[in-house]
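for the writeup, i need someone to sanity check this before i put it in the appendix. the sequnce is what the collaborator sent (i think, or maybe the updated version? ugh). structure was predicted straight from it, no edits. if anything looks off just tell me and ill rerun, i have time this weekend
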Amino acid sequence: MASSEWRRIVPILEVAAGIGEVDHTTVKDLCVCVARIDQAERDLSERGLMVTAERGTVKNGAATIAGQYRTQLARYIRELGLSPSARTGIVPPESEDDDSDIWD
């Protein structure tokens, strides 16, 4: 799941936001968040919101985990301009022309 998210968003971010290799750690963390949320949601779908444990019926820990990853994901979405409101603040990089050399 993380690798498919990477393949989906990196080409878009390279063009739209001008991300480069220096940003790959942040994008990788975003992709891991997406994968972990998917994993937690699968567990919730299979076992439900409440599970039986040693002390009786308790909240499925996957719900807490999903919430924590969603909070982090929201930060990455804002940081990388992946929401409609965040995109308004991102200016795509200008194309590199021969005339753009600062030494000319």
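The mean pLDDT is 87. The beta strands are 50-53, 56-59.
thx in advance!!
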